[in-house]
Amino acid sequence: MTTRTVHQVIKSMPASDGAGVKLRRSLGQSHFARLDPFLMLDEFSSEDASDYIAGFPAHPHRGFETVTYILDGHMLHEDHLGNKGNLKSGGVQWMTAGRGIIHSEMPQQERGRMRGFQLWINLPAKDKMKPASYRDLEASDIPEVKLGDKGKVRVIAGSYGGTRAPVQATATDATYLDVHLPAGATFRHPVKDGYNAFA
To answer: What is the DSSP letter of 142?
Structure first.
């Protein structure tokens, strides 16, 4: 097995999106090449409601997937197709925008910590016009693999150690793992030849 080396370290940059939500952007900064098929990675994290309360009012997406992972807080998703879903701490929403969707993501709390990530994954050309769809997963829907006394892995997409996630990103074959490790511990995971990866 070949061990990959780190190609580039990207420092996240402060940004805002939606109606002024403060966040940090790692992937998707204009001066960095994108990591195909990953288009953008944002982290939002604040205990100050003024940083997030305005949320993400109705806006369009097309031709890619968004994966929203809420670590702390509560967001409500609604779209123009009449779908509605609650994202709470530990939950994930996997949305395929496909041929197009207009949706909003709005905080359902007026105080307290709001923290999470949103990852954008490009769809192959043949899948860009597929019907829009989404799947909401509660924290209890996401399997966890214990690493002995060395932490755990939450399997959000793909598989790890024989445990398959409830979401299989069939268009891109993406794997999304939330790895929890104590200080000084290491983690190894195989990545297929020709696939890009980041941590």
So the answer is: S
What is d(CA 79, CA 58) in angstroms, rounded to the nearest whole number? 8
What lies within 8 Å, CB to CB, of 107 at 6+ separation is 49, 52, 53, 55, 73, 74, 75, 76, 114
User: What pTM value is reported for the model?
Assistant: 0.92
What are the φ and ψ backbone dihedral angles of 59, each rounded to 5 degrees?
-155, 155
Mean pLDDT by 10 residues, the chain (199 residues): 80 89 87 80 93 94 95 94 92 94 94 95 94 92 91 96 88 94 91 89
Q: Which residues contact 43 (CB under 8 A, 6 or more apart)?
A: 12, 23, 24, 26, 115, 116, 117
- Residue with the two structure tokens 């299989």: 168
Q: What is the predicted pLDDT for the residue at 7?
A: 82
Residue-range domains of the chain with CATH? 13-139 (2.60.120.10), 142-191 (no CATH)
Tokens 């990675």 — which residue?
41
Please choose, from the candidates 101, 99, 103, 121, the residue with its C-alpha nearest in 3D space to the C-alpha of residue 170. 121
**Strand 101-107 to strand 74-79: parallel, antiparallel, or no bridges (unpaired)?**
antiparallel
Residue whose C-alpha is closest to residue 108's, from 127, 91, 88: 88
Residues 119 and 67 sit within 8 Å (Cβ to Cβ): yes
